[in-house]
Amino acid sequence: xxxxxxxxxxxxxxxxxxxxxxAQESAAPKPWSESAVGSHVDQNELRGTLSKTxxxxxxxxxxxxxxxxxxxxxxxxxxxxxxxxxxTKRKRPLQQSFQRLPGTDSNACxxxxxxxxxxxxxxxxxxxxxSEGFTNADFDTSDxxxxxxRNTNHVMGAGLVELLAREMTADLQNxxxxxxxxxxxxxxxxxxxxxxxxxxxxxxxxxPDGIVDLSAIDGVDTDLVIRPFSQKGVIGSLRQFTVNAxxxxxxxxxAERFGARWTGExxxxxxxxxxxxxxxxxxxxxAWQATRKPPVQRTPExxxxxxxxxxxxxxxxxxxxxxxxxxxxxxxxxxxxDPGPFDAAGTLRRAExxxxxxxxxxxxxxxxxxxxxxxxxxxxxxxxxxxRHKIADQQISALGNxxxxxxxxxxDVFMTSELWGIxxxxxxxxxxxxxxxxxxxxxxxxxARQSRDQYVALGKNDRTALIAFLKxxxxxx
Amino acid sequence: MMKSIFxxxxxxxxxxxxxxxxxxxTQPTAPETDIxxxxxxxxxxxxxxxxxxxxxxxxxxGAASFDCNGDRFPDLMLAGGTGETQLFVNRSSEADGLxxxxxxxxVSKSDLQNVTGxxxxxIDNDGHRDVVLLRVGRNVxxxxxxxxxxKSANREFAFDGGRAWTTAFAATFEKDTPFPTLAFGNYVDxxxxxxxxxxxxxxxxxxxxxxxxxxxxxxxxxxxxxxxxSMIFTDWNRSGTPSLRITNDRHYYRDGEEQMWRVDPGKxxxxxxxxxGWKRVxxxxxxxxxxxxxxxGYPEYALTSMGDTKLQxxxxxxxxxxxxxxxxxxxxxxxxHRPYTGSDLKPSTGWHSEFAxxxxxxxxxxxxxxxxVEKMPDFADFDPDNLLLGQHDGTFFEAGHISGIDxxxxxxxxxxxxxxxxxxxxxxxxxxxxxxxxxxNRGGKxxxxxxxxxxxxxxxxxxxxANTNAVGATILVKSGNETRLRxxxxxxxxxxxxxxxxxxxxxxxxxxxxxxKWPDGEWSPAFRVFANNFVIxxxxxxxxxxWYP
Lengths: 477, 549
Prior knowledge:
The complex is a heterodimer.
Chain A: H1 2-27, E1 48-49, H2 52-67, E2 128-130, E3 148-150, H3 158-186, E4 190-196, E5 199-206, E6 211-213, H4 238-250, H5 255-258, H6 260-263, H7 279-290, E7 296-297, H8 303-318, E8 329-331, E9 335-338, E10 357-360, E11 378-380, E12 388-390, E13 413-415, H9 437-442, H10 449-457, H11 460-470, E14 473-474
Parallel strand pairs in A: 1-10
Antiparallel strand pairs in A: 2-3, 4-5, 5-6, 7-14, 8-11, 9-10, 12-13
Helix pairs in contact in A: 2-7, 4-7, 8-11
Chain B: H1 2-21, E1 36-40, H2 42-45, E2 63-66, E3 75-78, E4 86-90, E5 100-103, H3 109-112, E6 115-121, E7 130-135, E8 140-144, E9 150-152, E10 166-172, E11 181-186, E12 203-206, E13 219-222, E14 228-234, E15 243-248, E16 259-262, E17 270-271, E18 287-291, E19 300-304, E20 310-314, E21 325-327, E22 350-356, E23 365-370, E24 386-390, E25 396-398, H4 400-403, E26 411-417, E27 426-431, E28 437-446, E29 449-451, E30 455-462, E31 474-479, E32 482-487, E33 490-491, E34 497-498, E35 502-507, E36 511-517, E37 527-530, E38 533-538, E39 545-547
Parallel strand pairs in B: 2-34, 30-38
Antiparallel strand pairs in B: 1-28, 2-3, 3-4, 4-5, 6-7, 7-8, 8-9, 10-11, 10-33, 11-12, 12-13, 14-15, 15-16, 16-17, 18-19, 19-20, 20-21, 22-23, 23-24, 24-25, 26-27, 27-28, 28-29, 30-35, 31-32, 31-36, 36-37, 38-39
């Protein structure tokens, strides 16, 4: 009896295996297929902390999507949807599906993020035109009253950046929570300086009635969520950025925001393709971006350069560049939960699917190369503070060249650019119209004015040293 | 006579039934929108209460929610009919769920009995919500004080209270008036010859006398009265001067109809007539819900009845400025004319109605409390409450049976509020001769449990001086090209009202701009806020503040 059961089980398993193999074979894109996406990644297969093999598989899927030149078979283009992050219908379909200004403006993520490697930055030709996409969504001019022209950032080390932002957000929100608790128990207002990882974000006053005065916060949104992505610092997570960008630049609409749950339609952009990207597809893209090797500080082979760079590093600190471009920020954990803890509806959130996934960045080859402090925290060498600052003033106003604020952030306020990889990612400035490091330093106004003035006042040798130092911050192939 | 009325009702319902039979041969497929799981937790929440009584209490069954102790959690007062009105103080939290403790009402026991409905409104501008008790007999105003204390204020406010059987209430702050104007809707005059048929009481209109204290000594009669079961001050034409809309029960009136009174400051109210464009509508009007489904500034109204619910919108083809309404309930799939589940196909009996966004998808949903009057054989006996979820195509989808509110109870009044302040609207339904239902909103239903739903905002307005809670204000919440509109009102529903945070679902919008049209017509600047926050907007301040539970 047992024997018969075993035979049956073996036959069943064999049959199942054969069926699965057949299914996989049929799901794989045929060599002649004009679909760049192929089969979709199943989010339900991403459960708990992925093993190294699972993570590697997901990264490969993400890389394939990042470099895929999406086609109309996949759903590229958005004839009846605008670039807006909130699903928004056009009033009439566009005649041309591709348009360099409001988009859709590229075939693949890697069409722009490719310098010096895939996942890198883009030169001026890869600039994008950022508008909210609600009114005047179909602008056909680069006149800055309709859009902000932005250069392409790199995503190397982006997982570390998001993890830092998550920890900082948790810190700030804990400080607010503690202030409220204290105010409620004491019956008097409690003023708290917001500080996380050594970065000051102003102050809040918690009232005993539970109301918080936010008028003195600095460089962070009123919900105290650090949004580390985009030049403006208004995107909270790789996942949110990915969903936004897929729609904006490719007209590839992720179901987790543009699907029937939120729009009542499974083909919101009306291009004939339903559910263009699954939650799993977005997860693959997030996993690939989150696991990009961070830029490094190279040790030049030339002794002259080494000496200059060493001196330049000192100059960098002496004139106060490091007060915003902080050499490193400490990170406590390499555990990258996807979805993350601070996204809002429209970007997949925790507990929104049956299972949540965790990508352990410690499984990457580069993780062990990261320096740690005496407490074991990883020192992420990003040369940034994940804080927004005013970067233009009356005299030095070149970086205040935008006419449109973005998502509640004023036109002349930007997030500190992380300098890691800067030697590999010219041109510079948020518009990518500054060809040298010297130029971009000289146009730092506003909160950076003092350091900029000190730089200008330096002797030529010191300025050269500073540039030599910055030239060591590279993205390695 | 009564029989013929039933036949009329059944006939009307049959017409609707025939008209929609084809479309309803199969149960509609559930949309992918989130369907909230509403879990009944009355006992666990500590609320044991029933609305009871003979014929006079076939109607009524109200609930009022408002914060009576300054912690911003909505507390609860429930009408008991011949039983006592009860206060429940909210001890809920997001972590522990819904928890209430009985509160002490230190007022005359007789004032707390024979209560049909209750509405909270801060009459004397002292920062504490007062509660208007609608009674079979003398109405009572309970003046709210610190820490959920109340005292009868009829004498202090020179409020007579009358002797009628009161079943409806609404309040508004008229222009340059420091205290609210109150309207009371009365039902059958039981002492009139021939009662109950054709003997509806007049309604009562109370403007505060001039002075620095509320004084309601002078009452005006709103004649004719047609047995009002709900009333609301509504700015139907965006004039800035609200009119008084009343839904009436055709079961008892003769030659009556639905009514709307034009209420110009300083002038006696006057009825809108045929010459104004007002059309005769005869329904068993039980409850009014006002909601601006398309946020065009002209509200829609859901009027509950026996048989089908009316969903009225201002007729775009009518001459501008005339109150001509078109019923869009059928085209929007919101007739709710018979039970949507079970085998009872007789017409429904609708009571409390209210628009709210239960799943935070940014679209207004419509809740309707349902239940047989008592044992009317021509109407459904099993008559579950409706949860009509707004859809992106403008229609509604019935999700009561999926969400879990389809209990076999005779619903009457209700309040929809976020009692645990977790961002999701909860629901409390007062049932006739049955326990109150307390539904906690657990999130969107899935195969494996629940999931978080859309983004939301909850907004509190404050202004100094009169009308501290800004009754009559309009709140616009704009995200991208989408605008959501809410009004702060006192009245409507069925014998039930709430005062506190105004909840707005924002769907996938993570931020929004809020603009407020204050009751005197002044517009605020735009306030920039992030979703999933409790927002306090204080008149005159340039920034909104956040409040945290």
